[in-house]
Specification:
Blueprint (H helix, E strand, L loop, with lengths): L8 H10 L7 H4 L3 H4 L11 H7 L14 H5 L6 H19 L10 H10 L3 H10 L8 H8 L3 H18 L6 H14 L2 E3 H9 L8 H10 L2 E3 L4 E4 L4 H16 L4 H9 L5 H10 L3 E4 L2 E4 L4 H12 L5 H7 L6 H10 L3 E3 L5 E3 L10 H11 L3 E3 H11 L5 H8 L4 E4 L2 E4 L18 E5 L2 E7 L2 H5 L3 E3 L1 H6 L6 E5 L6 E5 L7 E3 L3 H6 L7 E7 L4 E7 L1 H4 L8 E3 L1
Antiparallel strand pairs: 1-3, 2-3, 4-5, 6-7, 8-10, 9-10, 11-12, 12-17, 13-16, 14-15, 15-16, 17-18, 18-19
Length: 552
Amino acid sequence: MNTAAGIGPDAAQWWRSICDSTQTPVRELLDGFDQIAPLPVPYDWLPGRAETFYGDRFQVWSDLADETIESLVNRPKGGIGTVRAILIAGWEAAARAQAILPPDAAADVTTAVSLLVDRLTDYDYQLLAARGWALHPKTVPVTAEQLGVTQINVTRNLPRAYARFKSLLPEPAHAVITKGAEQLGRLLGTLTRKPDAEAALQGFGVNLADDAGQILLHLAGPYAETNGGWLAVTTTDIVDSAIAVIDDALTRWGAPTTTTLTTKLGSLGIASETALEFVESRPGLRRFGEQWVQWGSTAAELAQAALHVCGEPMSPAAIAEFTGALHAEAAIRQALHDNSRFSRATRTTWALRRWGLDEYGGLFTEIAARIDSAGGSIATSAVVADILATVPDVNESSIRSYMGAPAFVVDKRTVRRRTAADGWPPVPPLNSVRGVFHPRPDEFRIAFPVTADLLRGSGQKLHAAPATALGVHPGSERTFTGTPCDVIVYWRLFSATGAGVGSLRPIAAVLEAQLGDTLVFVFNARDATVAVQRIAPADRRGRLAVLPRQVG
């Protein structure tokens, strides 16, 4: 290893032998010039003046071929000392190019690295081994202490030392290093695992712990070890880019295949086996056969993953089964209803909204859409046939029931939308409706048995006759003021079962109603008020007019 930057006795002797040949072309002054002609002039090893005043014009030795000592000295700000340093560097380069190496040196990376390192000064070697080609560089303070210099000395000289190191690589004696580094880089790609790198280096006869292994790996990349245990080329943000590629594929395709992901990662220079390993290492991803999805923890995330993998509408039960029952079917169903990323495909199945499928809005919507598409009137049989063909999980009786909703008029086997001219269908008299009493003008008493559905908060059905008597017609609702809360009576245009009453659960709770009791609502149609009584089974005595407890 060189310990000084001075000129050896052989170089000085050679200079004395040619310094008077001021008119001789440089190609004739240097034996073996053709061997070094394409190589760069090693300005990093020369005085600063050399590159300052000659570097722009003379970049490789062939640029100096027709120059002479006189022409070089006479260049602006040229000088004999600088010319002498340049030509001696050329003589040394030519001598090394013509040197006879050991028989197997051309194929021996270890020998070539040894020759390369021997060209460095001891200072440059220690600096580069610590912070240049090291896979895990030492800190500046540690390096400075190791070299016995100041930290600013390390910071200032590292780029210079590295430039001198790089300038040696093009020389023929070091060709096996550069070729080996190119091969290693192609083998490892832009991202690899440390064990894979160690195995690949062994194929070149070197170890990662040695100078030869670290130099070869550095020149192949350079690589740096990431937090995830990957060796990544430092010239790119390869890990972030790889993550972005995977995220983009998941966004675009939902459940991309292994081939898709590895191909996309391959475009970043990542080898296929490494690409698959990287995908497998990503948190939150799960593989189903050849498909990959983002696997979350919430019911909505899991439902989305299931739909991506299956690629067709699924029922909440099927989704729950696919996800391994991580969430109950009821939770899955609620997530499908509440999240805008899902749309209802049929009565029982759901799809991803991004698929662009026609959204199922219920039988009322399906019937109305077909009436409108037909120009306002369509045969009932055609409606039934078309809905059964597109919504397979409904039955004919349900379809015909919804065609009987107030919004529609069925006439001579055709169905159309109801208009103002049609009016509303007639309703039966009040005295024909069970549980309804009309003791005086504007007062209506309606009895509701206390059932599990009522206590749970479900709305209650109301016959068309009392709804009409209370001033509620199809497409309208009315609020009746009472205590502990108001009561809403409504009649939806799409309802095939008539009118209804909103949740009675709060009233039942205040009255401490139990299963088997009866709640009697006393409605005043004129001033829109309501009073409520609870009747226990023991209190009935066959008459609902007995009102032991009342709120109102």
